[in-house]
Amino acid sequence: MEGNTFTIEEATVEEIHQAFSDNRLTARQLVDFYLNRIQTLNPVLRAVIEVNPDAIELADLADRKLKECRENGTGINELGELHGIPVLLKDTIGTNDKLNTTAGSYALMGSKVPRDAEVVEKLRKAGAIILGKSSLSEWYKFRSLSGVPDGWCARAGQGVNPYVHSGTPCGSSSGSAIAVSANMAAVSLGTETHSSIICPAGHNSVVGFKPTVGLTSRAGVIPMAPRWDSIGPICRSVSDAVCLLNVIAGLDPRDTATAEASKFIPEGGYKQFLNRNGLKGKRLGIVRHPFMENIQDSNESKAFDHHINRLRQEGAVIVDNLHLADIDTILEPNHSGEILVMMAEFKTSINSYLKELSNSPVSSLADIIAFNENNRELEKLDEHDQQTFIHAEDIDGFGEQEKAAARKLEDLSRKGFEKLMQAHKLDAMVTPGSRACAVTAIGRCPAITVPAGYGSDGMPFGISFAGLKGSEPKLIEIAYAFEQSTKIRKPPPSFTETSTWIRQ
C-alpha cells in the first residue's frame, strides 16, 4: 500500500483490514475482484469447483457492519479476526448453505450436510466470507492411489500448476493452493492425512500449515483416516496462515481428538509468535537422507544448503546430517502398514459420515463404488479406476491385522522422529520439499512449509519445518523468521498484472 493506493494481489489479511479501516477498500470490491479472477483464470487452472452464490450478499453485509463500526468509532477487530476476508474451502469441508460438499465427485452432488463443519462455524463467527469450494485430488486421491493424477477430480477436471502448467500441482488440497497462489482468494483451508497440505503448498509457492491432529476439529469434514486427518491453512504468507489457525483451533465436543490437542493452545493465541527474531537460539535438526537424494533440480539442492546457512546466520543452532531410524520403511506406506490402516479407517468413517447426509445419492462406500461403475464416463473410469476403494470395501472392520499395523506405525514414530527430536533437544526438523510428510503423518505431528525457491524450469519448491505434537508456537517463530529474512515467494509469472483500487 502506498498513499491512497491499495493493491489487492498478494495483500495480507492485516493489509486488507487496514484498507477497510482507511476506507480505501470495501468487502464488496474485494469479493468482486476475486470472483472476476476466478472467472478469468479458472477455465485454465481448474482450482475452484464452485463459487458461493451468496458471496456478494455476504460482502454487502460485511460492509454494512464496517460502516457501523466507523460511525461508532470502534476498531475493525471488534468485528472479528477475519471480518470481510474471502475464504476458499477444500471441497471436503462441509457448509450448510447453497454450496455442495462432494470431495470432487458427482457421487455426492445434491447431498446436504446437517450443519456447518466446526471450522466453518468458527470462520463465520470471525467474520469470514465463504467464497466457494476449491478443487482437489478426488476423494483425497484415495479412489485409486496409482490411477488418479494429482489435482484431478471429476467435477473440476485437472488442476493446473500456475507456475509450470505441465508441472504437478500436487494434492490432495491442490485447488486451495493453486487458488491462493494465483490470487483467486485471500486465504484458503485444506486438509492433510499424508502430505495433502504440505505438498501442494510447496509445489505452488505458498505457505501450508498442517496442525497437530485434533488441534482443529474434523467434525463435518469428509473423513479419510481420522487418526491422522488434520485441517489447516494454505495462504500466501505465514502471518495469514497463523491468523486462520488462530480462528479455527479449539475444542469441539463433536471431535474427541480436540479434547487432548486443545490443551496445546497457548493463552493469547498464536499471533504472538510472529517473531522476526524467532530463529535465535532454536535447535534445528537437518535430515538430508533420503530426501536430498531425490532432488533432481540443482537449483533446489543449492537453495537448501543456502537456506541452512541463512538459518544459522539468523541465530539458529544447526545440527546437521541427522538420520531417522527406519526411514525407508516409513516412506513406503504399503510396507509400513499405513495404507492398510487408511483403508480400514476410510471404510468405517466414510460410512458413518454418509449416514448423516440427506438427499445423498450414496449412503456407503459400496454405494460409491456402484455409482462410479454406473457412471464410468462421468467419473472417467476409463482412465482412473477405483482399486483402493474396492480393497477398502473388502476389509471387514478394524481387525487384528489392522491393529498390529497401527501399533507398528506408532512404534516407528516413537523410535524415529520422536527419539530424534528428544535425543538432540530439537525445536524442529528441517527437510527439503514434502517427502518427509509420512514422518509427521504417522506421528500426528505438525509441520509447516514455506516457499524456498524455483527450479530451473520455474517450478516452485518449499522447505519444511516439523515438530512434536503441540509445537506450533515454535514452528511459527521459525517459519515466520525464515520467511521474513528471505521473502522468496513471487506471484506466478503468467498472472503478475496488477489491479489497483484507488480511494479518493
Task: Give the SSE map.
Elements: E1 5-7, H1 13-21, H2 27-45, E2 48-51, H3 55-72, E3 86-90, H4 118-125, E4 129-134, E5 152-153, E6 157-158, H5 174-181, E7 187-192, H6 198-203, E8 207-210, E9 230-235, H7 238-248, H8 257-261, E10 283-287, H9 298-313, E11 317-322, H10 327-330, H11 333-336, H12 338-355, H13 365-374, H14 387-394, H15 400-423, E12 428-432, H16 437-443, E13 447-454, E14 460-466, H17 472-486, E15 500-502
Parallel strand pairs: 3-4, 3-7, 10-11, 10-12
Antiparallel strand pairs: 1-15, 2-4, 5-6, 7-9, 8-9, 8-13, 12-14, 13-14
Helix pairs in contact: 2-3, 12-14, 12-15, 15-16
Domain Amidase: 30-435
Pfam families: Amidase
Protein name: OLC1v1021341C1
Entry keywords:
Amidase signature (AS) enzymes, 15 strands, single chain, two-stranded antiparallel sheet, 504 residues, 38% helix, eleven-stranded mixed β-sheet, alpha/beta, globular
Describe this structure in words.
This protein has one domain: Alpha-Beta Complex (Amidase signature (AS) enzymes). The chain is built from 17 helices and 15 strands. The strands form three sheets. Strands 2-4-3-7-9-8-13-14-12-10-11 form an eleven-stranded mixed sheet, with helices on both faces. Strand 10, helix 9 and strand 11 form a beta-alpha-beta unit. The chain is globular. InterPro entries: Amidase_dom (IPR023631), AS_sf (IPR036928). This is OLC1v1021341C1.
